[in-house]
What we know:
The protein is α+β, with helices and mostly antiparallel strands. It has 4 helices and 3 strands. The radius of gyration is 18 Å and the shape is globular.
Amino acid sequence: MENQLILKASGITKTYHSSAEDIQVLRALDLEVKAGEIIAISGPSGIGKTTLLNIFGTLDRPDSGKLIIADQEPFTLNDIALSTFRARHLGFVFQFHYLLPEFSALENVMIPGRILDANLQELRIRGEMLLDAVGVSHRKTHKPSQLSGGER
């Protein structure tokens, strides 16, 4: 399992177009990540780090190249299958929180499982475990506006 390839990017290219200029932020990028590996993506502002992570997270598509995650090519999936793929295989920690304001902390944590039609009781138990793991289980009924920045 330790040597299992979980992400393979081959020739990933991305260019942003504007009326003033074209900016190629990713140029034929190749990367392989194996299970258990920890990688860091660093560089100056505007170099393409967020673009790369958005592509790896299937939130944006490359102009060219191939991406394989968990032995699948996510960009060949239709929108519904891609949403299911994201819920099963990907997790995101955004620079800014994206919590639904009308949902409690626990309900927000349960959203990916709801997309997969998981059992609600099992989701609730798992959600409470996750909130406990990050030290905010005592705030599970609070709305995002009632949480501190760190708790969000």
